[in-house]
Amino acid sequence: MLSYLGRRLALMVPVAFLVSVAVFLLVHLTPGDPAAIILGEEGSPDTIAALHRELGLDQPLPTQYGIWLSRVVRGDLGRSLRTHQPVTEAITERLPATMELGLAALVWSLAVAIPLGALAALRRGSVLDLLASSFTVAGVSVPNFFIGILLILVMGLLLRLFPVGGFTPLAVDPLQNLRHLLLPALTLGTAGAAINMRFTRSSMIEVLSQDYIRTARAKGAPWLRVVRSHALKNALIPVVTIVGIQVGSIIEGALVTETVFSWPGVGKLAVDGIFGRDYPVIQGIVLSAALSYMLANLLVDLAYAYLDPRITYS
Amino acid sequence: MLRSRPRIVFAAGLLLLLALTSLLAPLVAGHDPITTDPDHALLGPGPGHWFGTDELGRDLFARVLWGGRVSLPVAFVAVGVGLLVGGVTGLVAGYRGRATDLLLMRVIDAILAFPALILAVAIVSALGPDLRNAMIAIGVVQVPVYARLTRAQVLQIKGLDFVAAARALGASPLRLVARHMLPNLLNPLIVQVSLSAAFAILAEATLSFLGLGAQPPTPDWGSMINDGSRFLSNGDWWLAIAPGLAICLAVFGFNWLGDALRDALDPRLRG
User: Which residue has the higher pLDDT, B133 or A236?
Assistant: First the structure.
């Protein structure tokens, strides 16, 4: 296991290097002089030259990268061009809100998908199976911002059940926090729920046709127990792999969901950063998103190898 | 083959309908999508305006149809970029192997290390928000899928007897790839094209929703939803719903077609 982990980490090094180069070069993709673009109409030759020095743009590119990287590995992502707040601080400030939303979305996507997917597999061709399949198709075809808008329209404006935007910190008022959380979490988690359900269903169908299920039944084990401890447990192993992909879609979905619901998280910070041409903020968030995604996938691979004894660590 | 595959016919028909109505928008829309008409602002759906009008009095049915002329081609170009760049990368990596393979696939891994939409958003925000850059960005994030798919297929086919036979007969590498390997790669690629067209439409809509795609007054599904969402609380729901349904139909059509094609083209799944 340890050597497997070592090899996985070693494989991540060149990829992380390329990722950092790509994020660094992001600013240099901008057509024209980044400093002039950042300053816009207010830019005079003096202020542009000053910003050049501040951003290190007067150095050769590899030197710039070296300086940037040495700061990044020490956790210094630079300062926001608009608020002058350190980017690391801006991200960590908003991270709890995004984590809460992402976790709630993940819980919703698993809590719905696993039981429904398993039931659909047990009752193939039934009305429930049909409903589950329809949900699967709808879940992956409806853009999440549109789900958000539909939820706002129906649950927020028509039925007036939930607030349509905003945020109350958990520590201030847990109940209000949950009321604000529900619609964004549903919005963010539904696509994942659809994919998880499809996966659970097909994996469960495959497991149910295995010999050991028949053996367990033949030995007289109660059906419910066979389903729960023999079938479902094994069927869920492949589902673990897609949770990693889902962390990615939750990170990207946060951009839109937080915008729709004015949720004060990292996604909102990123979108505000884009419109303010706040490159350090964009770079910082893109880099953190990529690194968290890589880490999530590593953890999922390890969990997968741990859960399924047939998988060797080579 | 098609008669026995109602799902393919249904999905293809739906997509054809969407493509035709967008293509013929100037003839069938009945209204201009850009000319404003403040006297008829925010009318609900009705006989004169099937989908209602927006805050500037523009006919939403016309805007949704014209929006298809933006969203659908963007998706196609983006998929084309992904298919071409990714396909060639995968072919070269798989065919050459060794160091070339190692190097190219690490670049692909690096693209995959980013959540796709985050990368697309980052590229567009750097290049500047407009449709062309949105196409490039969505194309770039599609490259890994095609590269990996093509490479895996090439590695599989490379070792088969018919390839060895062609090589023994003196076929050049180019001929080997173009005449003998490429035709055998097509099936999974066709399925992937359909599925990634669905992704591209979603991604384009998301970028435009965030203000990073088509710029006003160009009618575009994603930006129309964003504009319309500001009027939800006034009860003017149709502004956001009409373009949203168009996106859902298009994405659904491509997903459905991709699934049906996979079932039809994959011999292991043939009933």
Answer: B133
Q: What is the pLDDT of residue A291?
A: 92
pLDDT tens profile B171-217? 888 888 888 888 888 888 888 899 899 999 999 999 999 989 888 88
Alpha-carbon distance of B229 to B11, in angstroms, equals 29
**How many contacts (CB atoms, under 8 Å) link A and B?**
128
Residue A311 vs residue A219, higher pLDDT: A219
CA distance A46 to B152: 54
Answer yes or no: do B118 and A251 touch at CB < 8 A: yes
pLDDT-derived band at A269 (thresholds 50, 70, 90) equals very high
∠ CA A37-A42-A46, nearest 5°, is 90
Q: How many whole angstroms separate alpha carbon A271 and alpha carbon A255?
A: 7
Structure token digits, residue A191:
């696509």
Whether residue B271 is predicted with pLDDT greater than 60 in this model: the reply is no
Is the reported ipTM for this assembly greater than 0.90? no
Q: Does A26 touch chain B (CB under 8 A)?
A: yes
3-state secondary structure chain B: CCCCCHHHHHHHHHHHHHHHHHHCHHHHCCCCCCCCCHHHCCCCCCCCCCCCECCCCCEHHHHHHHHHHHHHHHHHHHHHHHHHHHHHHHHHHHHHCHHHHHHHHHHHHHHHCCCHHHHHHHHHHHHCCCHHHHHHHHHHHHHHHHHHHHHHHHHHHHCCHHHHHHHHCCCCHHHHHHHHHHHHHHHHHHHHHHHHHHHHHHHHHHHHHCCCCCCCCCCCHHHHHHHHHCCHHHCCCHHHHHHHHHHHHHHHHHHHHHHHHHHHHCHHHCC
- Beta carbons of B113 and A19 less than 8 Å apart: yes
Residues 276-295 of A with CB under 8 A from B: 277, 282, 286, 289-290, 293-294
CA nearest to B225, candidates B71, B122, B73: B71
pLDDT(B258) > 80: yes
Burial B242-261 (b: 16+ CB within 10 A, else e): bbbebbbbbbbbbbbbbbbb
Return the SS3 of A35: helix
**Nearest CB to A282; choose among B117, B122, B241:** B122
Radius of gyration of chain A (CA): 24
Interface touch B106/A270, C-beta < 8 Å:
no
* Cis before B217? omega within 30: yes
Q: Closest partner residue to B225 among A22, A30, A146, by Cβ?
A: A146
Confidence check: pLDDT of B1 > 60: no
Amino acid identity, position B196? S
Q: Do B115 and A270 touch (CB under 8 A)?
A: no
Inter-chain CB proximity B240 and A149 less than 8 Å = yes
Average pLDDT across chain A, whole number: 86
